[in-house]
Structures are given as C-alpha cells and as structure tokens.
Inverse folding.
C-alpha cells in the first residue's frame, strides 16, 4: 500500500514564501510613490487656495502697489508674486514640492475699478 503524505514539503513552502516576498517587494515602491504623489497634490491644492485668497485680498483691498511679493514659510515655503497688466492682476506661487522639483501655479483676476 502507498502511504500518503499530508502537508507541504519544504520546497513548496519556500516557493510560496518567495512569491509572497516578490509581491511585497514590488508593492512597497508603488506605495511609497503613491504616498509622495498624494503629498504633492495636497500641497498643490493648499497653495492654490492660499494664492486665491491673497489674490482676492489684493483685488478688493490693497491693489494699488505693484509688483507685490509675499513669502509664506508655514506650512510650506513658497513665494507669491503679484503683477498688474491694465485691469488684469496675475498672481503666481513658486515652491519646491515633495519630489524636490520646482513648481509654479498662476491665477488671474480682474480689477473692476
């Protein structure tokens, strides 16, 4: 009579572990990249909102002296530059993102005076 062996052999366990480690090794860099991209997008959204608020203040409150430069150190280190062409006010924000790349976003507003 043949004797049946129940369970896994050492080779089967080793192959299964190699497959699991391979999956983990490929997913870890992807997770890190996604986390970094999430930070970049969140910073971009925050900076756009800050730039919008500053542009509204310049348009409606203190829009007589140009060019204007404002620096924000917390939570991000960025510089906002506002210039005026006839009725149009251009506000640009420049900063270094989480990937250590320089980024710039510009918004435009019309001054109705």
């Amino acid at each position: 009579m043949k004797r049946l062996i129940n369970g896994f052999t050492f080779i089967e366990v080793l192959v299964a572990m190699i497959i699991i480690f391979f999956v983990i090794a490929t997913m870890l860099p992807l997770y890190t990249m996604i986390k970094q991209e999430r930070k970049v997008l969140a910073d971009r959204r925050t900076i756009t909102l800050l730039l919008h608020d500053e542009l509204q203040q310049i348009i409606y409150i203190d829009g007589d002296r140009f060019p204007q430069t404002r620096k924000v150190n917390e939570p991000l280190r960025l510089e906002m530059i506002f210039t005026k062409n006839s009725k149009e006010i251009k506000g640009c924000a420049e900063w270094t993102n989480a990937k250590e790349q320089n980024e710039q976003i510009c918004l435009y507003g019309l001054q109705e005076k």
